[in-house]
Amino acid sequence: MAQRPYIVGNWKMNGTRAMLSEARAIDRASQRLMKVEVAVAPPFTLIHATRKEAQQMAIGAQDCHAGSEGAHTGDVSASMVADAGASFVILGHSERRQNHTETDEMVKAKADSAIEAGLKVIVCCGETEADRDAGKAIDVVTSQLRGSLPVGGDVAERLTVAYEPVWAIGTGRVAADSDVAEMHAAIRALLLELYGEPEEDSEVRILYGGSVKPENAAQILSIADVGGALVGGASLTAESFLGIVMGATEAEEAAA
Ligand code: 13P
């Protein structure tokens, strides 16, 4: 049996305590929508408070430092986000790669540190529009993942990959179904090469991200090997995020 679809809200740099009511509403509804696994990654400042609201959904961080402690002003370690209540961390998002010049090596070091701290990780990848226009999308994404993914031991059990074409993030543009299917197949082949055949029920899920909305969620989630969605803008209200969770539920029921 395949794993449940995994719908993760990435709140990015949005949210003050006023948004806890949205978190609570998402959590309460997710208790009734059990065909889907629901998670939210608020900013660091809200991890502890959202965790206290959450009875069902998982809470994650959007980044962590690769080191465990020390003189790194403004940084937060994996064990600190775990202590605040996070069970996973999103790493290597294109906004961090762009705004903080994070390299594949840095993302991998963070992933190793997060796994060491007992967290699950969502490692992000995605091509720019120029990469896609040049016909290099698959090469760029597989090379990012080769450099960014943690290796060794049982890391695959703690891993999720998120494919987010940079040009689809926050733009309202979504990759064509055939391009998503092609990319997810290429990522699946790489995961098989790196981690081998998975145990039953423990296949690494590959999420799609980039302008996922309630209106397109069921369609995107029905594409081959799309194991869930990483959602930005549409995760900021319970109404739109739950619309996506319901779309995923529909796709799951249609596939059953
Ligand atoms: P949008 O859903 O706002 O396009 O953002 C996607 C994303 O970057 C999630 O990590």
The rounded Rg comes to 17 Å
What is the general shape?
Answer: globular
Mean pLDDT: 96
Q: Work out the helix count.
A: 10
Low-confidence sequence ranges: none
Number of strands: 8
As laid out across the biggest beta sheet, the strand order is 1-2-3-4-5-6-7-8
User: What is CATH's topology name?
Assistant: TIM Barrel
User: Helicity, in percent?
Assistant: 40-55%
Describe the structure.
The chain has 256 residues and is α/β, with parallel strands linked by helices. It has a single domain (6-255), classed as Alpha-Beta Barrel (TIM Barrel), CATH 3.20.20.70. It is built from ten helices and eight strands. Strands 1-2-3-4-5-6-7-8 form an eight-stranded parallel barrel, surrounded by seven helices. The model has no long low-confidence stretch (mean pLDDT 96). The site of 1,3-dihydroxyacetonephosphate has 14 residues, from strand 8. 1,3-dihydroxyacetonephosphate is lined by residues 10, 93, 164, 169-170, 209-212, 230-234.
